[in-house]
Amino acid sequence: MRYIPEVSDADWSTRHSVLTTARRTAALLNVLADDRPDPGHVASVLLEYGEAGPIELGPDEVDEMRVAAALLRQVFAAATADEAALVLNRLLREHTGPLRLTSHGGTTPWHAHIDRDDDAPWAEWLLASSCMALAVLLWDLQRPPGRTCASGSCRNVFVAQGSGPERRYCSRRCATRERVAAHRGRHSAGGSGDAAQGPA
Ligand SMILES: [Zn+2]
């Protein structure tokens, strides 16, 4: 009897969706932004997003992934769809191959790849799969596919999606910190009467 996995077809498909791929790109860019990213930490993000384990990354592979991540950051830094499209077109022209379909030997839903083959190095895979997902999101939403956190003390990128109000921060934590800082700024400006009393 064939084993039926707990994971539903919907989950199986969602795990490989364009949106999940773009979110994986953002998560990888954020761990790879460290000066010396821990290879184990990078591998854990890959596993979290459904890559098959075990994943052993060497320092050289992580270094190459950091170079790819730096290129991809330019897409997240773009303020408009036009700007993001220019960056993506350049990356697609200079770093990726022709479009092909793969199911990784039947282990995943059919999906598109633009790296050379299923065994391409991690850095090539990161750049190609990210360009693909970000290009499709830009196409679909007609806006930049991602953003950089508006907090001056945070370098995180995130995937902007949906039709709600424009999101400015990578996380609730950054949004709260900035709101508290803005409140304190207003408070201390309003409290200048205290300062006028001079030093104690
Ligand atoms: Zn942030």
Please tell me about this protein's structure:
The chain is mainly alpha-helical. Helices cover about 55% and strands about 5% of the residues. It has helices at about 10-15, 20-30, 40-50, 60-75, 80-95, 120-140, 170-190, 190-195, and strands at about 100, 110-115, 145-150, 155-160. It has a two-stranded antiparallel ribbon. A hairpin with an 8-residue loop joins strand 3 and strand 4. The structure holds zinc ion. Zinc ion binds next to loops. The site of zinc ion has 8 residues, from loops.
Summarize the topology.
Elements: H1 9-14, H2 18-32, H3 39-48, H4 59-77, H5 81-95, E1 100-102, E2 111-113, H6 122-141, E3 146-148, E4 157-159, H7 172-190, H8 192-195
Antiparallel strand pairs: 1-2, 3-4
Helix pairs in contact: 2-3, 2-4, 2-6, 4-5, 4-6, 5-6
Bound molecules: zinc ion.
Q: Could you say which overall geometry the principal axes of the C-alpha atoms support? A: globular
Q: In order across it, which strands form the biggest sheet?
A: 1-2
CATH topological fold name of one domain: Jann2411-like fold
Order of helices and strands: HHHHHEEHEEHH
What's the mean pLDDT score?
87
| Span between termini | 83 Å
Low-confidence stretches: 1-7, 191-200
CATH superfamily of one domain: Jann2411-like domain
- How many helical elements? 8
Q: Which small compounds were modeled alongside the protein?
A: zinc ion
Rounded Rg: 21 Å
User: Approximately what portion of the residues adopt beta-strand conformation?
Assistant: 5-15%
Pfam families: zf-CGNR
Protein name: Zinc finger CGNR domain-containing protein
InterPro entries: ABATE (IPR010852), ABATE_dom_sf (IPR023286), Znf_CGNR (IPR021005)
Organism: Streptomyces vietnamensis
